[in-house]
Fold this protein.
Amino acid sequence: MNTIALLPHNGHLLPGGRLKIIISRVCDIRMVTEAIANNEAFALGMIDSNYCCYQYQK
């Protein structure tokens, strides 16, 4: 089973598009940094931004 880190965001991004984002919460910075360091995927998700550090299992 693979896991994908989900970064809460309220922007819309279409395939092949670009979106400039600012990551300011410590848990989000850690999540994205770990995903990049381990050559793993992460995704933007329109989810409740009041919660921190989501992981989705596919």
Observations:
- Strands lie at 3-8, 42-45, 54-57.
